Amino acid sequence: MIYIMMPESRITAIAICFAAGIAAAAYLHPIVWLALAAMSALGVPVIAKNVKRSTVMIAAVAFVLGAAHYCVGREIPQSDVSRFVFHINAFEGTVASDPENGEGRTRLICKVARVKSGDEWVSACGQVMVNIYSDETALSPKLDYGDRVRIDTNAYPPQDPTNPGQFSWKGYLARQYIYSCAYVKNASQLHVIERGQGNILLLAALKSKHYIERSIAKITPEREASVMTGMVLGTYSYLPRETLANFGKTGTLHLLAASGYNCFILLFFATPILKLTGLMPKYRSAVVIFLLIMYMLMVGMKPSLIRASVMASAFLIAPLLKRVPSIKTVFFAAGFGILAINPSYLFDVGFQLSFLAVWALISISPVVESILVKAGVINQTPFKRRAGLLQKISSEIAGAGVATLSVTLFTAPVIAYYFNYFSIVSLPANMALALGVPVVFAGGMLAPIVAPIPVVGTAVGWVGGKVTSAMLGIVDYLGSWHYSSVAIASPGVLAVVGYYIVLYAALSYVRSKVAA
To answer: Which of 58, 154, 264, 464 is most buried per CB count within 10 Å?
Structure first.
């Protein structure tokens, strides 16, 4: 793997320069970013004589490759369905996503094979985001991932937001290489040609997902089941609007997003269970990596989840190769790998917040913890196996507080830029929910196993429901405060950059004082 082959400084430079090249290509003319790369390659070794010319050349090449990769990825193929968007009245393809059901709407992605223009069918490629609007309780025919379908409707290009700074649906879809949308008003426009044409592994993962959903609903009350399902599957779509709004106001919405925390809890429970089976470490690692892949397929290939899975897999594989991985090396290698697959992820808010949050835990958390220890706010007591229950609980709560404070400091300007709010109660809310999340996640993952067993299923559902209810009570109470969150106008790019410069300077100063 790349983190084993390269030293930390080199992979860090390559990842940063590759990302910088992508950003440059998005906003600058090719002549400008090529000139910047050439000037850096020639000028940096002259100005900074202690920097090796080979390192500078590698960084310049990474910059150019990142920019070129982004430019190539933005080119829309001539046979893409979007090229026919104003001329088609039907298209055929395969359902490429798990249909997402909402209030009176089903949304899915169709991978197109051919389109109908007039009376003629022609081959095409690309994807269409299809919205099916229906007042019926059950849409007929019901569509699933892997179904080959014909949809009799027109397509249209997604539009840019009407006001600057608003969420761009067009940009969001373009990052997934989707440049066309369509909507269906009634079931007569849908025709299933063939079932079960998708990837076998993904079909299995989605069947597992649906079984988890049904199992949680079977043993848990409806409102609590929506939260438990959201936490396990990393989605907001199961929550009532008011509950979703309160999670946003309290800064705890990340608990319902598929992220590294989900992977951490999965590893936390899977590892000791696998140890009890007596499997050798290399086989345990293989099983855990497979579970991570299946979980990622089940909840969706989101940038934050890909990042967590790649980093976790790297740490699992490294001991088998007799290597000691560095957290920073794995961090930058994961970023480089994800951007190499899809450079547009750099502009995805989930990608940005995920990497900023992890970097905050790497760079800021130790400083914050040192300050709190020196001030006597928390005790510098190692977590011992024989520690008392209260000590373990206080340790978990203190850890959640340090992590939340660190992540908040580092992600605040980005959240303000995209979402225009700042949560005042984020710190106490996250600390209060810290102990409940693993219990709810474990209950949700156990639901498929225990739901068929009357007494056990009822017990697990009761515990999970009570813990979820308590968490909802905290979220609803704090979210109902008039000033639980403050509306903020999107800061400018210079203001965001200035914030990080000041934060870096302040942390460097504090770090030097704490070290002294």
So the answer is: 464
Which residues constitute the domain of residue 148?
81-198
DSSP class of 125: B
Helix axes 327-341, 8-27, angle to 10 degrees: 30
Residues 343-367 pLDDT 10s: 999 998 888 888 998 898 888 888 8
Pair type for strands 127-133 and 180-184: parallel
pLDDT in tens, 105-162: 888 999 999 999 888 899 999 999 999 887 654 555 788 899 999 999 989 998 877 6
398 and 253 fall within a common domain: yes
CB-based burial of residue 62 (10 Å sphere; 0-12 exposed, 13-18 middle, 19+ buried)?
Answer: buried
Report the Cα–Cα distance between both ends of the chain, in Å, rounded: 38
Long-range pairs of 480-486 with CB within 8 A, sequence gap ≥ 24: 480/246, 481/424, 481/425, 483/424, 484/249, 484/250, 484/423, 484/424, 484/425, 485/248, 485/249, 485/250, 485/251, 485/421, 485/422, 485/423, 485/424, 485/425, 486/421, 486/422, 486/424
Query: What is the pTM (predicted TM-score) of this model?
Result: 0.81
Burial profile 436-446: b = 16 or more Cβ within 10 angstroms, e = fewer: bbbbbbbbbbb
Whether residue 384 is found in the same domain as residue 433: yes
**454/469 same-domain check:** yes
Residues 238 and 359 both lie in one domain: yes
Closest CA to 250 of 395, 431, 413: 431
* Closest listed residue to residue 9, CA positions, set 43, 56, 48, 42: 56
